[in-house]
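Dear colleagues,

As part of the handover before I leave the project, I'm documenting each prediction I ran so the next person doesn't have to rerun anything. This entry is a single chain, and its sequence is reproduced below.
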Amino acid sequence: MDKSVLKPADLKPGDIFLCVFEHPGAEAYFDALINTIKYYNYKDEADRTKFLENALIILRGLIITFDDDIYTHASFWNGEAIVEAGLSGVNANPLEHYKDTITDVYRYQKDGNELGSNELPNTPLLEEAQKLVDQNLNYSYETAYLYILLCLTRWKRDEWITLMKDFLKAQLSENKSSYIELIFNIYHDKIVMLFEWMADEMIRQIVAYRKDDGLVCSETVAKIYNEALPIGNYHIEKPLSADSNPPLRSKQQDGEPIDEHILDTFIESLKELEKNDIYSAGSYSWGNAVDIEYTPHDLARSKNTYLAGRLDLT
């Protein structure tokens, strides 16, 4: 899909930035899964950091895969700075912050009116964005789980297990892809158990999250629009599931080699699930999650937003 190139001078207050994430490759995902299992029961801050770093790789990959899109981060342009939820909380960051990021710019419209028109002045949005910055709201790594929960609950478990298998098979030569098929057949129940545990963990993190006043990136953008005065005037309508298939999709390269040693290590990690009793905390009805958040996909595919172009900071 062709995109217009937008220079800083082309940006408009109220623009929504959506950042592209590309799959790092099957071996990187295997390594992240192994370390997620290894550090899931972290005892200190160092191990917690390792767990979150590896989980974030998986979460980003799952977001673009199961959300059927290419974006994993969202932010708001106030005309002078980027208002976004980052590790240090909700802040206004300089535009140069996105110099090494592939960023698409989306714009808001409603009932045929463009943001910035007399019918849709952008001042209420800018005021709401500044309120969030002034509140010094925090951000927690754990709240990123909230995104993937929304993505996961849109799929039946066998569908996303099959997608994972097909993705990994695409990374192997034809004579080795049968190895992946064999792993998923033999360890199907354990792989389901692993991902169900991850989904349960996401819900636990959401429960903890809802007790604080932190924000995550897409929520920050949605909050600015949905709570700007008068409330409802700038509401971003979520796409219907039947209408939300995007024209863009992050693609994987076929035939990239995988070190078979890492496959063996992954199998050993799956065997450890029984010893570690990873799923002993009980299960949740994650398939019926309440629609409490926006994903980057929701912002991009809303009928109220359209792709204006790709940001060029060179």
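The longest helix spans residues 45-66. The chain has a mean pLDDT of 79.

All the best with the project,
I.
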